[in-house]
Design a protein that fits this description.
Distance between the termini: 55 Å
Low-confidence stretches: none
Number of strands: 0
Radius of gyration: 20 Å
Largest sheet: none
Shape: elongated
Length: about 210
């Protein structure tokens, strides 16, 4: 195959590799996947894979971040730009169905769980770089709202986990159980209910963006 020469061509090839790697990792597991398998899935040579990624571990971490970081950045922007905590929660609730239905996040969560015992250092790195960053952003949002008198919350860090927990559970449910259509959940309705109960529990007022 002809070597990619422009920056756009290189980025396109890198994204193709990441997409192929995700499919192979989910299908075979990280331990069983080989660089040959990933190269074949991407219709590239094994040598080309090593031009972009130095090892299977490097590729695996890139796959995790490629899915997670753009979505984390979107949620951070949403929280930063919302005029109130209530509207920030509304925005998160509206974004989550897209996150679960239209991105690879559920498969990433499943993959992390399956590999946690074999490659704990990669899972720890993901937690520190992605999950802690996301929880830290929500914690900061709630802490600022508490200081401004918008909400009544004890520990913003614990409350942030209550915000995130149904999202993680729904993502895992979708990839593990929803192969059976009878198990499918209306994620839009679920997130709307979740945000409604969060606002009530936190005491978000109409003036604060309820």
């Amino acid at each position: 195959m002809q070597r990619a020469r422009t920056d756009d061509a290189k980025d396109e090839r890198r994204q193709a590799l990441l997409a192929a790697a995700l499919e192979v990792f989910v299908d075979k597991s990280f331990a069983a996947a080989r660089m040959d398998d990933i190269a074949r899935a991407a219709s590239l040579s094994k040598g080309t894979v090593y031009l972009y990624f130095s090892s299977k571990e490097d590729l695996f971490e890139a796959v995790l971040r490629n899915v997670a970081l753009p979505n984390v950045e979107h949620i951070e922007n949403l929280m930063r730009e919302a005029p109130s905590v209530g509207e920030a929660l509304d925005g998160i609730g509206l974004f989550v169905p897209h996150l679960i239905r239209e991105t690879s996040l559920p498969r990433i969560i499943k993959l992390l769980i399956s590999e946690s015992g074999t490659f704990p250092e990669i899972v720890q790195s993901y937690r520190e770089d992605v999950l802690d960053r996301l929880l830290g952003g929500v914690t900061g949002l709630l802490a600022r709202a508490k200081a401004a008198g918008e909400i009544d919350v004890g520990d913003p860090a614990l409350a942030a986990r209550l915000v995130a927990s149904p999202i993680a559970f729904s993502a895992l449910w979708s990839v593990v159980f929803e192969t059976d259509p009878k198990a499918r959940v209306d994620i839009d309705a679920l997130m709307a209910m979740h945000v409604m109960h969060l606002k009530r529990a936190l005491g978000v007022t109409e003036e604060a963006g309820a």
